[in-house]
Specification:
This is Phospho-2-dehydro-3-deoxyheptonate aldolase. It is built from 13 helices and 14 strands. The protein has an 8-stranded parallel β-barrel with strand order 1-2-5-8-9-10-11-14, surrounded by 6 helices. A two-stranded antiparallel sheet has the order 3-4. Bound molecules: phosphoenolpyruvate (PEP) and manganese (II) ion. Manganese (II) ion binds next to loops.
Length: about 450
């Protein structure tokens, strides 16, 4: 166990972005109830994910992490969960073929309910109110009353995470992930896409490979490798009361694990070296992520890595870089070099979403497909140049046909944003844009 760490040691440090609840006693009662709840994941699963991420760090596997910016309680039905899983599975097949490596699949799902915000309040319709901080904190409804933080929402977040994960486990091991079926969805997509020809070669190759396997007598329905997948869960570990109430000592190893998700990450706004988040995260044994934004300097990153991964364990730490297409060339190479010079084992993962957000003339927060693709392209090129491993990608996406990000084969324009703008926080790639992105990455990986 890490020196001087205990489950509540974070309480001695300043915690950014925590809700201010009207009644602290009520919060304590909720946290006491959460401490009694069963784990959502097992420590052994977290260790398995860590081992897979160690392979990613070594360049022997590829990481795909994706899902909503903010999950919503009202969006918890089977169809929506199934569509999110489906798009991740479709992308994973394309990426597996492109990289010829196992793809480690991690959802921003079953717990992604808390959001850090740049401003604690916002003005809507002339009324000043608390910003929406995710369904586990307050309601998206724009009234001062609904925006009051309510600790009971933490319990609902736990229960909805449990039911989401339960369904995901059923789908991923009950036949829904069969490779032939996922491939059939991809062929359908290519047939319908306006830029289908660009993707057809790869889709046809994958299809022929599967037919070849079948012709050799291998029936996907009889092989778990071909009809089941492991999907891991992740979310930003923002609300430290909630996260520590779901942190348990593993009876097998005596180590502490966050049992609310397989992987949790520290956001770009809460990675202060002397802050409560870093203190909490250093003591848990899950694989963890660290968002690395434009204000991260080399010396700070080195200190953060030493605190968060003192044993330099491979698979423990995923650096999720989010600089923006315009800044990545200037900001990523020096950080890669400092990590390399120190001999740190990390997974480098590209989040091409959060550095490319802007406000459209219509007032919607959006991102352009071409900026996202440009940041990814540069991420792969820079790592190739530096001789390091571009380990994975991190997307905000959904399986539905939303109109939140611009561009893509359907060439979504600003005037289309209002048609189906459903996110409660940041704009997500829709199903077609997500799969297109996977095809583009697969082409890059094959070069
Ligand atoms: C997010 O991933 O939704 C997020 C808030 O990212 P970041 O911490 O990188 O800004
Ligand atoms: Mn976001």
């Amino acid at each position: 166990m890490q020196k001087d760490w205990h489950l509540d040691s974070w309480r001695d440090f300043a915690a950014a972005q925590q809700p201010e609840y009207p009644d602290p006693k009520e919060v304590e009662a909720v946290l006491a109830e959460l401490r009694q709840q069963p784990p959502l994941v097992f420590a052994g699963e977290c260790r398995k994910l860590k081992a897979k991420l160690a392979r990613v760090a070594a360049g022997e596997a590829f990481l795909l992490q994706g899902g909503d910016c903010a999950e919503q309680f009202s969006q918890n039905h089977a169809k929506i969960i199934r569509e999110k899983l489906r798009i991740l599975l479709q992308m994973a097949v394309v990426l597996t073929y492109g990289s010829l490596k196992p793809v480690v699949k991690v959802g921003r799902i079953a717990g992604q309910y808390a959001k850090p915000r740049s401003s604690p309040t916002e003005r809507i319709g002339g009324v000043e109110m608390a910003s929406y901080k995710g369904d586990s904190v307050n309601s998206f409804e724009p009234t001062p009353q609904e925006r009051m933080p309510d600790p009971n929402r933490l319990l609902r977040a736990y229960h909805q995470s449990a039911s989401t994960l339960n369904l995901l486990r059923a789908f991923t091991h009950g036949g829904y992930a069969d490779l032939n079926m996922v491939n059939a969805w991809n062929l359908q997509f290519v047939k319908n896409s306006p830029l289908g020809l660009d993707y057809e070669d790869l889709a046809t190759e994958i299809h022929r490979t599967l037919k070849f396997i079948e012709a050799c007598g291998i029936d996907s329905r009889r092989f778990p490798q071909l009809n089941q997948v492991d999907l891991y869960t992740s979310h930003e570990g923002l609300l430290l009361g909630y996260e520590s109430a779901l942190t348990r000592c593993d009876s097998l190893t005596g180590d502490w694990y966050n049992v609310g998700a397989h992987m949790v990450w520290i956001g770009d706004r809460t990675r202060q070296l002397d802050g409560a988040h870093v203190e909490y995260f250093r003591g848990i044994n899950n694989p963890i992520g660290l968002k690395v934004g434009p204000t991260t300097d080399g010396p700070t990153l080195v200190e953060l890595i030493k605190v968060l991964n003192p044993e330099n364990e491979a698979g423990r730490l995923v650096l999720i870089t989010r600089f923006g297409a315009a800044k990545i060339e200037e900001l990523l190479p020096p950080l890669i070099r400092v990590v390399k010079d120190n001999g740190f084992q990390v997974v480098w993962c590209c989040d091409p979403m959060h550095g490319n957000t802007y406000k459209a003339d219509t007032g919607h927060k959006t991102r352009h497909f071409s900026d996202i693709l440009q940041e990814l392209t540069l991420f792969f090129a820079i790592h190739r140049q530096e001789g390091t491993v571009p380990g994975g990608v991190h997307f905000e996406l959904t399986g539905a046909n939303v109109t939140e990000c611009l561009g893509g084969a359907a060439d979504l324009k600003e005037e289309h944003l209002a048609e189906s703008y459903e996110t409660a926080c940041d704009p997500r790639l829709n199903a077609a844009q997500s799969l297109e992105m996977a095809f583009k990455i697969a082409h890059m990986l094959r070069q």
